[in-house]
Protein backbone atom coordinates (compact mmCIF):
# COMPACT_ATOMS: atom_id res chain seq x y z
CA UNK A 1 0.00 0.00 0.00
CA UNK A 2 1.56 3.39 -0.91
CA UNK A 3 2.61 5.70 1.95
CA UNK A 4 0.20 8.35 3.11
CA UNK A 5 1.66 11.88 2.85
CA UNK A 6 2.46 13.45 6.18
CA UNK A 7 0.47 16.49 7.18
CA UNK A 8 0.86 18.86 10.07
CA UNK A 9 3.86 20.47 11.80
CA UNK A 10 5.04 17.48 13.83
CA UNK A 11 7.62 14.95 12.80
CA UNK A 12 6.51 12.07 10.67
CA UNK A 13 5.69 8.95 12.66
CA UNK A 14 7.45 5.76 11.85
CA UNK A 15 6.36 2.15 11.98
CA UNK A 16 6.68 0.33 15.26
CA UNK A 17 9.69 -1.92 15.80
CA UNK A 18 12.96 -2.16 17.72
CA UNK A 19 15.07 0.99 18.22
CA UNK A 20 18.86 1.42 17.54
CA UNK A 21 20.90 0.78 20.70
CA UNK A 22 21.93 3.88 22.63
CA UNK A 23 20.91 7.52 22.22
CA UNK A 24 21.87 9.40 19.10
CA UNK A 25 22.88 13.05 19.52
CA UNK A 26 21.51 15.75 17.26
CA UNK A 27 24.21 17.24 15.06
CA UNK A 28 24.78 20.90 14.21
CA UNK A 29 26.02 20.13 10.72
CA UNK A 30 24.75 17.96 7.87
CA UNK A 31 25.53 14.28 8.01
CA UNK A 32 24.55 11.42 5.84
CA UNK A 33 21.07 10.11 6.55
CA UNK A 34 21.20 7.21 8.98
CA UNK A 35 18.82 4.29 8.59
CA UNK A 36 16.25 4.26 11.32
CA UNK A 37 14.56 1.13 12.50
CA UNK A 38 10.82 1.32 12.94
CA UNK A 39 9.69 2.62 16.27
CA UNK A 40 6.44 2.54 18.09
CA UNK A 41 3.76 4.73 16.55
CA UNK A 42 2.98 7.83 18.52
CA UNK A 43 -0.48 9.30 18.44
CA UNK A 44 -0.73 12.16 15.92
CA UNK A 45 -3.56 14.30 14.61
CA UNK A 46 -3.65 12.14 11.52
CA UNK A 47 -3.04 8.43 11.41
CA UNK A 48 0.08 7.98 9.26
CA UNK A 49 1.12 4.81 7.57
CA UNK A 50 4.31 3.05 8.77
CA UNK A 51 7.48 4.39 7.16
CA UNK A 52 10.53 2.23 6.26
CA UNK A 53 13.06 4.97 7.12
CA UNK A 54 13.79 8.66 6.88
CA UNK A 55 12.44 10.67 4.01
CA UNK A 56 14.73 10.77 0.98
CA UNK A 57 16.75 13.94 0.79
CA UNK A 58 16.08 14.87 4.41
CA UNK A 59 19.11 17.14 5.30
CA UNK A 60 19.36 16.10 8.96
CA UNK A 61 18.67 12.85 10.77
CA UNK A 62 15.32 12.66 12.54
CA UNK A 63 15.15 14.55 15.80
CA UNK A 64 14.18 12.97 19.08
CA UNK A 65 10.65 11.72 19.36
CA UNK A 66 8.23 13.24 21.83
CA UNK A 67 8.88 11.89 25.26
CA UNK A 68 12.43 10.76 24.34
CA UNK A 69 15.30 12.64 26.13
CA UNK A 70 17.89 14.51 24.05
CA UNK A 71 21.39 12.90 23.97
CA UNK A 72 24.37 15.01 25.05
CA UNK A 73 27.00 14.11 22.35
CA UNK A 74 28.07 17.13 20.34
CA UNK A 75 29.92 16.90 17.03
CA UNK A 76 33.15 18.96 16.89
CA UNK A 77 35.55 19.91 14.13
CA UNK A 78 33.57 18.32 11.32
CA UNK A 79 34.15 14.75 12.61
CA UNK A 80 31.49 12.16 13.16
CA UNK A 81 30.35 11.79 16.78
CA UNK A 82 31.68 8.74 18.63
CA UNK A 83 29.51 5.68 18.39
CA UNK A 84 28.34 4.60 21.83
CA UNK A 85 28.65 0.96 22.81
CA UNK A 86 25.57 -1.20 22.40
CA UNK A 87 23.13 -0.46 25.17
CA UNK A 88 20.64 -2.64 26.90
CA UNK A 89 17.34 -3.41 25.36
CA UNK A 90 14.70 -0.76 25.68
CA UNK A 91 11.69 -1.15 27.83
CA UNK A 92 8.53 -2.37 26.16
CA UNK A 93 7.33 1.20 25.87
CA UNK A 94 10.37 2.06 23.65
CA UNK A 95 12.16 4.12 26.33
CA UNK A 96 15.87 3.24 27.02
CA UNK A 97 16.80 1.80 30.40
CA UNK A 98 18.87 4.75 31.61
CA UNK A 99 20.04 3.00 34.77
CA UNK A 100 21.47 0.17 32.69
CA UNK A 101 23.08 2.68 30.32
CA UNK A 102 24.65 4.61 33.19
CA UNK A 103 26.02 1.39 34.72
CA UNK A 104 27.43 0.30 31.36
CA UNK A 105 29.05 3.70 30.79
CA UNK A 106 30.61 3.54 34.26
CA UNK A 107 32.00 0.07 33.55
CA UNK A 108 33.39 1.29 30.22
CA UNK A 109 35.04 4.28 31.92
CA UNK A 110 36.61 1.98 34.53
CA UNK A 111 37.98 -0.27 31.80
CA UNK A 112 39.44 2.77 30.04
CA UNK A 113 41.13 3.96 33.24
CA UNK A 114 42.57 0.50 33.87
CA UNK A 115 43.94 0.28 30.34
CA UNK A 116 45.46 3.76 30.62
CA UNK A 117 47.10 2.89 33.95
CA UNK A 118 48.48 -0.35 32.51
CA UNK A 119 49.88 1.58 29.52
CA UNK A 120 51.61 4.12 31.78
CA UNK A 121 53.15 1.42 33.98
CA UNK A 122 54.34 -0.48 30.91
CA UNK A 123 55.95 2.66 29.45
CA UNK A 124 57.75 3.38 32.72
CA UNK A 125 59.07 -0.17 32.91
CA UNK A 126 60.29 -0.06 29.29
CA UNK A 127 62.05 3.30 29.75
CA UNK A 128 63.62 2.18 33.03
CA UNK A 129 64.85 -1.02 31.44
CA UNK A 130 66.29 0.85 28.48
CA UNK A 131 67.94 3.44 30.72
CA UNK A 132 69.39 0.80 33.01
CA UNK A 133 70.79 -1.16 30.10
CA UNK A 134 72.40 1.98 28.65
CA UNK A 135 74.01 2.80 31.96
CA UNK A 136 75.43 -0.72 32.28
CA UNK A 137 76.90 -0.50 28.80
CA UNK A 138 78.36 2.91 29.56
CA UNK A 139 80.00 1.56 32.69
CA UNK A 140 81.29 -1.71 31.28
CA UNK A 141 81.86 -0.88 27.62
CA UNK A 142 84.46 1.80 28.19
CA UNK A 143 86.40 1.19 25.00
CA UNK A 144 83.80 2.95 22.87
CA UNK A 145 82.45 5.16 25.69
CA UNK A 146 78.79 5.08 24.65
CA UNK A 147 76.45 7.65 26.14
CA UNK A 148 73.54 6.64 28.40
CA UNK A 149 70.08 7.00 26.84
CA UNK A 150 68.82 10.53 27.01
CA UNK A 151 72.24 12.02 27.73
CA UNK A 152 73.73 14.86 25.77
CA UNK A 153 77.20 14.99 24.36
CA UNK A 154 79.62 12.57 25.98
CA UNK A 155 81.63 14.17 28.79
CA UNK A 156 85.37 13.57 28.70
CA UNK A 157 86.73 11.49 31.56
CA UNK A 158 89.73 12.88 33.47
CA UNK A 159 92.11 10.13 34.47
CA UNK A 160 94.46 10.52 37.38
CA UNK A 161 98.09 9.44 37.51
CA UNK A 162 98.61 5.75 36.91
CA UNK A 163 100.27 3.51 39.47
CA UNK A 164 101.79 1.36 36.76
CA UNK A 165 105.44 1.66 35.80
CA UNK A 166 106.38 3.98 32.94
CA UNK A 167 106.68 2.63 29.42
CA UNK A 168 110.16 1.69 28.18
CA UNK A 169 111.99 4.19 25.94
CA UNK A 170 111.13 4.16 22.26
CA UNK A 171 113.44 2.07 20.14
CA UNK A 172 115.72 4.17 17.97
CA UNK A 173 117.03 3.53 14.48
CA UNK A 174 119.53 0.71 14.09
CA UNK A 175 123.14 1.42 14.97
CA UNK A 176 126.38 -0.50 14.43
CA UNK A 177 127.63 -2.46 17.43
CA UNK A 178 129.83 -0.78 20.02
CA UNK A 179 133.16 -1.97 21.40
CA UNK A 180 133.87 -0.67 24.87
CA UNK A 181 132.76 2.51 26.62
CA UNK A 182 133.92 5.70 28.31
CA UNK A 183 132.63 6.37 31.84
CA UNK A 184 131.02 9.73 32.50
CA UNK A 185 132.95 12.25 34.59
CA UNK A 186 129.59 13.64 35.74
CA UNK A 187 126.30 11.76 35.64
CA UNK A 188 125.62 8.08 35.15
CA UNK A 189 125.41 7.61 31.36
CA UNK A 190 128.57 6.12 29.85
CA UNK A 191 129.56 6.68 26.22
CA UNK A 192 129.50 3.46 24.21
CA UNK A 193 132.15 3.55 21.48
CA UNK A 194 131.81 2.57 17.85
CA UNK A 195 134.55 0.42 16.35
CA UNK A 196 136.38 3.38 14.76
CA UNK A 197 136.07 5.81 17.68
CA UNK A 198 139.35 6.05 19.59
CA UNK A 199 140.10 7.71 22.89
CA UNK A 200 143.52 9.36 23.10
CA UNK A 201 145.49 12.60 23.20
CA UNK A 202 146.39 15.21 20.63
CA UNK A 203 149.20 17.74 20.39
CA UNK A 204 148.19 21.15 21.61
CA UNK A 205 145.36 19.86 23.77
CA UNK A 206 145.56 18.91 27.44
CA UNK A 207 143.27 16.06 28.32
CA UNK A 208 141.57 13.14 26.65
CA UNK A 209 139.89 13.43 23.27
CA UNK A 210 137.73 11.17 21.12
CA UNK A 211 139.16 10.76 17.64
CA UNK A 212 136.56 10.27 14.92
CA UNK A 213 137.88 9.52 11.40
CA UNK A 214 134.35 9.54 9.89
CA UNK A 215 132.31 6.58 8.70
CA UNK A 216 129.45 4.50 10.08
CA UNK A 217 131.51 3.10 12.97
CA UNK A 218 132.98 6.48 13.92
CA UNK A 219 130.66 7.48 16.78
CA UNK A 220 129.89 7.25 20.50
CA UNK A 221 126.48 7.21 22.17
CA UNK A 222 124.74 6.77 25.51
CA UNK A 223 122.12 4.11 26.14
CA UNK A 224 119.72 6.46 27.93
CA UNK A 225 118.38 9.99 27.69
CA UNK A 226 120.69 12.79 28.83
CA UNK A 227 118.84 16.08 28.21
CA UNK A 228 115.14 16.75 28.80
CA UNK A 229 114.34 18.76 25.71
CA UNK A 230 110.95 19.90 27.01
CA UNK A 231 112.84 22.15 29.42
CA UNK A 232 115.65 24.68 29.18
CA UNK A 233 119.12 23.21 28.65
CA UNK A 234 122.72 23.98 27.66
CA UNK A 235 125.14 21.78 25.69
CA UNK A 236 128.84 22.48 25.13
CA UNK A 237 131.82 20.72 23.48
CA UNK A 238 135.31 21.44 22.19
CA UNK A 239 135.56 20.40 18.55
CA UNK A 240 138.17 20.15 15.84
CA UNK A 241 137.29 19.42 12.21
CA UNK A 242 140.08 18.46 9.83
CA UNK A 243 138.27 18.62 6.45
CA UNK A 244 137.38 21.94 4.79
CA UNK A 245 133.80 21.22 3.75
CA UNK A 246 130.73 19.08 4.29
CA UNK A 247 128.04 18.88 6.93
CA UNK A 248 129.44 17.56 10.20
CA UNK A 249 127.72 16.89 13.51
CA UNK A 250 129.88 16.99 16.64
CA UNK A 251 127.22 16.39 19.34
CA UNK A 252 123.50 15.69 18.98
CA UNK A 253 120.67 13.99 20.84
CA UNK A 254 118.12 11.51 19.59
CA UNK A 255 117.94 8.29 17.60
CA UNK A 256 114.44 8.71 16.16
CA UNK A 257 113.47 9.90 12.71
CA UNK A 258 115.20 13.26 13.27
CA UNK A 259 117.51 14.65 15.95
CA UNK A 260 116.30 16.80 18.86
CA UNK A 261 119.27 19.19 18.88
CA UNK A 262 122.74 19.31 17.32
CA UNK A 263 126.03 21.24 17.43
CA UNK A 264 128.23 21.15 14.33
CA UNK A 265 129.12 22.64 10.97
CA UNK A 266 127.04 23.01 7.81
CA UNK A 267 126.79 25.04 4.63
CA UNK A 268 124.86 28.31 4.82
CA UNK A 269 124.57 30.65 1.83
CA UNK A 270 127.78 29.34 0.31
CA UNK A 271 129.72 29.33 3.59
CA UNK A 272 130.57 26.54 6.01
CA UNK A 273 129.47 27.84 9.41
CA UNK A 274 129.08 26.60 12.95
CA UNK A 275 125.53 26.00 14.07
CA UNK A 276 123.26 25.13 16.99
CA UNK A 277 119.92 23.79 15.82
CA UNK A 278 116.81 22.13 17.25
CA UNK A 279 114.06 20.09 15.66
CA UNK A 280 110.70 21.88 15.91
CA UNK A 281 107.59 19.85 16.85
CA UNK A 282 105.55 19.24 13.72
CA UNK A 283 108.57 19.39 11.40
CA UNK A 284 111.36 21.72 10.37
CA UNK A 285 114.23 23.13 12.40
CA UNK A 286 115.35 26.37 14.02
CA UNK A 287 119.04 27.23 13.54
CA UNK A 288 121.39 29.75 15.14
CA UNK A 289 124.44 30.33 12.90
CA UNK A 290 127.92 31.59 13.64
CA UNK A 291 128.86 35.05 12.41
CA UNK A 292 131.96 33.87 10.56
CA UNK A 293 133.12 30.78 8.74
CA UNK A 294 134.02 27.62 10.56
CA UNK A 295 137.76 27.09 11.02
CA UNK A 296 139.63 23.92 10.11
CA UNK A 297 142.23 22.12 12.28
CA UNK A 298 141.63 24.41 15.23
CA UNK A 299 139.99 23.68 18.55
CA UNK A 300 136.80 25.64 19.03
CA UNK A 301 134.38 25.72 21.98
CA UNK A 302 130.78 25.48 20.74
CA UNK A 303 127.98 26.16 23.25
CA UNK A 304 124.27 25.98 22.52
CA UNK A 305 121.67 27.39 24.95
CA UNK A 306 117.92 26.77 24.71
CA UNK A 307 115.55 28.84 26.86
CA UNK A 308 112.24 26.99 26.97
CA UNK A 309 109.96 29.79 28.33
CA UNK A 310 110.95 32.14 25.51
CA UNK A 311 111.60 29.45 22.89
CA UNK A 312 114.93 31.12 22.07
CA UNK A 313 118.09 29.24 21.14
CA UNK A 314 121.52 30.92 21.03
CA UNK A 315 124.91 29.82 19.71
CA UNK A 316 128.17 30.80 21.41
CA UNK A 317 131.59 30.30 19.80
CA UNK A 318 134.54 30.46 22.24
CA UNK A 319 132.26 32.14 24.78
CA UNK A 320 131.02 34.89 22.42
CA UNK A 321 127.32 35.03 21.42
CA UNK A 322 126.76 34.62 17.68
CA UNK A 323 123.05 34.64 16.82
CA UNK A 324 119.69 33.48 18.13
CA UNK A 325 116.59 31.86 16.67
CA UNK A 326 113.06 31.13 17.84
CA UNK A 327 111.46 27.71 18.17
CA UNK A 328 108.04 26.55 19.34
CA UNK A 329 109.59 23.84 21.50
CA UNK A 330 111.98 20.97 20.81
CA UNK A 331 110.86 17.63 19.41
CA UNK A 332 111.96 14.53 21.37
CA UNK A 333 113.66 11.82 19.31
CA UNK A 334 113.47 8.10 19.94
CA UNK A 335 115.20 7.13 23.18
CA UNK A 336 116.78 10.64 23.39
CA UNK A 337 120.25 9.14 23.69
CA UNK A 338 123.26 11.43 23.32
CA UNK A 339 125.20 11.01 20.05
CA UNK A 340 128.81 12.04 19.41
CA UNK A 341 130.04 12.31 15.82
CA UNK A 342 126.67 11.90 14.04
CA UNK A 343 122.96 12.84 13.97
CA UNK A 344 119.74 11.14 12.89
CA UNK A 345 118.06 12.44 9.74
CA UNK A 346 115.18 10.80 7.91
CA UNK A 347 115.65 7.67 10.05
CA UNK A 348 119.31 7.34 9.02
CA UNK A 349 122.63 8.31 10.54
CA UNK A 350 124.12 11.34 8.80
CA UNK A 351 126.75 14.12 8.96
CA UNK A 352 129.64 12.05 10.38
CA UNK A 353 132.26 14.07 12.21
CA UNK A 354 135.78 14.11 10.80
CA UNK A 355 138.30 15.18 13.45
CA UNK A 356 138.10 15.09 17.26
CA UNK A 357 135.72 16.00 20.08
CA UNK A 358 136.46 16.65 23.79
CA UNK A 359 135.13 18.27 26.97
CA UNK A 360 131.44 17.43 26.38
CA UNK A 361 129.10 18.90 29.04
CA UNK A 362 125.35 19.39 29.46
CA UNK A 363 123.19 21.39 31.90
CA UNK A 364 119.48 21.15 32.59
CA UNK A 365 119.10 24.93 32.56
CA UNK A 366 120.19 28.09 30.79
CA UNK A 367 123.87 28.64 31.59
CA UNK A 368 124.65 32.34 32.13
CA UNK A 369 127.13 33.98 29.75
CA UNK A 370 129.58 34.52 32.60
CA UNK A 371 129.77 30.76 33.12
CA UNK A 372 130.05 30.10 29.39
CA UNK A 373 133.12 32.35 29.31
CA UNK A 374 134.64 30.36 32.20
CA UNK A 375 134.37 27.15 30.19
CA UNK A 376 136.72 28.64 27.61
CA UNK A 377 139.50 28.87 30.20
CA UNK A 378 139.29 25.14 30.87
CA UNK A 379 139.41 23.09 34.08
CA UNK A 380 141.28 25.81 35.93
CA UNK A 381 138.18 28.02 35.86
CA UNK A 382 135.04 25.85 36.16
CA UNK A 383 131.59 27.44 35.85
CA UNK A 384 129.70 28.25 39.04
CA UNK A 385 126.91 25.83 38.01
CA UNK A 386 128.02 22.21 37.83
CA UNK A 387 126.98 20.24 34.74
CA UNK A 388 124.46 17.40 34.97
CA UNK A 389 126.55 15.31 32.57
CA UNK A 390 130.22 15.47 31.48
CA UNK A 391 132.56 13.31 29.36
CA UNK A 392 136.19 13.60 28.25
CA UNK A 393 136.98 16.56 30.48
CA UNK A 394 140.56 17.86 31.00
From TrEMBL:
Keywords: Disulfide bond, Membrane, Signal, Transmembrane, Transmembrane helix. The keyword Transmembrane applies. Residues 13-36, 45-67 have a biased composition (Pro residues). The keyword Signal applies. InterPro entries: ConA-like_dom_sf, LamG-like. The chain crosses the membrane at residues 117-138. Residues 154-167 have a biased composition (Polar residues). It comes from the Bacteria. Residues 231-370 form the LamG-like jellyroll fold domain. Residues 1-96, 146-175 are annotated as: Disordered. Residues 68-80 have a biased composition (Low complexity). This is LamG domain-containing protein. It comes from Kitasatospora xanthocidica.
Amino acid sequence: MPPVPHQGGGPAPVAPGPVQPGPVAPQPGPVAPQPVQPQAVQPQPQAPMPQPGPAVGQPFPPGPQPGQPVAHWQQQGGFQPPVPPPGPALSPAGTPNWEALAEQNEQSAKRGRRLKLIGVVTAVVVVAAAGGGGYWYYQHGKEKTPVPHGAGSPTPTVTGPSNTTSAPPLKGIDSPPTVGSLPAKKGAAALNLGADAKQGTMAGFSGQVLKLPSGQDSFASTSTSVVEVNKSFTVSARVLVDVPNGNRSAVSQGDGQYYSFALGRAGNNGHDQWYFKVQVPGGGSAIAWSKGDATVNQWVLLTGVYDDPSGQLTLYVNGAPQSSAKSAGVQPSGSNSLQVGRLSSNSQWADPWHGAVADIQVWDQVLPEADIVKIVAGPSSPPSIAPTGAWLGG
